[in-house]
Amino acid sequence: MTDGADDRPLPDEVRWLEWGTRALDDVFRIPGTNWRFGLDPILGLVPGIGDASAAVLSVALLGSAVRMGVPRVVLLRMGLNVVADYLVGLVPGLGDVADVFFKSNRRNLTLLRRHATGRPAGVADYLIVGGAAAVVAGAILAGVAISIWLLAALARLIG
Do the Cβ atoms of 3 and 108 come closer than 8 Å? Predict the structure, then answer.
């Protein structure tokens, strides 16, 4: 299984990440075009929760990248892809449209394939991924909190 960016197969430990990336980013094709999209924009229709569930795969990709020895600067780039995708996903409508075009998991899988060197991960690698995961977790919590606050405000307006 490849993603078109590189013909090197991924180790068995990350095969499910490749499957998840395909499901979130590429499973459907827009008829008459080469544009593909996946479940990510559909899950994104559920405010806060949909984008948070899609971010789980993103964090798993980052963890695999550390284990496979991806250089720190690439880990940071992968983390920024995740954060950018999540933050844009918080904007109703725009986030769902952006998910069709900006596929952070596909980009990160491509980076993982391109930069996996097999060097052992060091403490700094784990700190970078931990920091990126903390930012993603904070963004997820903020998104869920904003969604709950908006629903409560809507309930007060109605009731």
Answer: no
Of 11, 97, 109, 123, nearest to 57 (Cα)? Answer: 109
Long-range contacts at 126-129 (CB < 8 A, ≥ 24 apart) = 126/66, 128/72, 128/75, 128/76, 128/79, 129/62, 129/63, 129/65, 129/66, 129/75, 129/79
pTM across the whole model: 0.67
pLDDT tens digits, one per residue of 76-87:
888 888 888 877
CA–CA gap between residue 43 and residue 57 (Å, rounded): 13
User: Which has the closest alpha carbon to 60: 101, 96, 16, 121?
Assistant: 16
Q: Tokens for 135?
A: 């930012």
Whether residue 136 contacts residue 86, with contact meaning beta carbons closer than 8 Å, is answered with: yes
